[in-house]
Input
Amino acid sequence: MPLTAIYPFASLRDAYTELARRKARGKIVLAFDARITEPLRAPKPKA
Output
């Protein structure tokens, strides 16, 4: 399964909102690393 995004733990609400929309085409991961301060998006696959 592909990775959709990595969210910092501080953005838990945003991650849950994206999950609730059911539009994600992969995993949504929560990061507890203090160096990640904003959501990281996976690159879109080439068609």
